[in-house]
Amino acid sequence: MKQLNQNQDQWKTRLGFMLAAMGSAVGLGNIWRFPYVTGELGGATFLIVYLAFVFLIGIPLLLNEFSIGKAGQKDAVGSFQNLAPNTKWHWTGFMGVIGGILILSFYSVVAGWSLFYLYKYLTGAYWSEPDGGYGMVFDEWISNPILPLLWQALFLGVTLFIVIRGVKGGIEKANAFLMPVLAVLMIFMAGYVLTLDGALEGVTFLFQPDWSQLSNPKLYLTALGQAFFSLSIGVSGMLTYASYLKAKDRLPGAAIGVGVMDTVFAVIAGIMIFPAVFSFGLEVNEGPPLVFITLPSIFASMPLGNVVGIIFFVLLTMAALSSAISLLELPVAFFKRTIGMSRKAATYLCTSIIFVLGIASSLGFGIWSGVTIGGQNILGMIDYLTANFVLPFGALLMALFVGWYLNREQAQKNSEIENPLMFNIWYIIIKIIVPVVMIIIVIANIFGYTA
Length: 451
Description:
Blueprint: H1 14-25, H2 28-40, H3 44-72, H4 76-83, H5 90-122, H6 133-143, H7 147-163, H8 167-193, H9 199-207, H10 217-230, H11 237-242, H12 252-279, H13 294-301, H14 305-339, H15 343-363, H16 378-405, H17 408-415, H18 420-446
Helix pairs in contact: 1-8, 1-12, 1-14, 2-10, 2-12, 3-4, 3-10, 3-12, 3-16, 3-18, 4-5, 5-7, 5-14, 5-15, 5-16, 7-14, 7-15, 8-12, 8-14, 9-12, 13-14, 14-15, 15-16, 16-18
């Protein structure tokens, strides 16, 4: 493949790309969202349906996005302009850039909370139950108009420091450190939690299906959404990462590897959390407060809970950082090419825009808490719109682009699937099944069938 942009950054190694892509996929969604939606929707039954959707829909979509980026060899917008000149397809990439900015604007707020909790554990402030309990101090913290913004800015500052150093020197090096350390910490946490009294009940919940749950339509829609969004599909971040690949780097194995490892991280997160929840007699369907209220209460009651708390919030912050890097690189690459800015200038500009937008999400828990749409605060509203409409619509357009705009020969060449049978299966999924599934998701979201 000819390099279309001579100034284009490239990964040093294929492994570096895979670690960065895993970092993009493995984030708060795996460690925070996956356990509580699993708890709400039947444990093992949800897990089985989720795994099925990862392999049947998620990985094919991931390969689809990779194929556009590697063939296009530019940012999210430029890749479509290269592959479909003089058409409107580049608006798909532009929608992804806007979506990435919006997602990181509220994602960085929650990541700032995690960083603050890590600080509290490092200083010993949260080793024991504070006056009023963890619930009260959490509510007071997120409603403060200033302090959460400072921690959000600190988190974005770390993200900026990495992205500004480029693909090889920043993103690849950071993920080469973050992902192995994250894996070791999660395995250690899971192993420790399994030693607690009553832990087996949590393991049973996670791995022994309750087949009666299969009659719940929400189970399928939520599992499909979790599989879809946990792989960071539809926002063009994976497309941008794939554009930095060299011609010799093959896509199918990378897509399978990233999909499998993302799923492994999610399952380990469940093993980390459910045995502890059952061990201390708490509810498995606590929802989003699970991480910032329920788990600190558990840590305060278990042996070596202070150490466990430190490790947990280290890994939570690292997971958030690895995803934030890809979300920031998405608009940075776009601004670099379209405006001709240096990477340094583009990174500062994008980070500033994201921080300013994030102010609204943060204040939505405090002085702007009265601003709601459809019963949701500002952060919840942006999260809902991006996760349930922007990302699925982006994935739908990318599937239509490969399945219907490109001819079959172009699609096969770009996918790099050499086996004819495997290509036919993948092509049918992208051309027929994915559009139908994405339309069902969007309709279900419009009529409120999903959480």
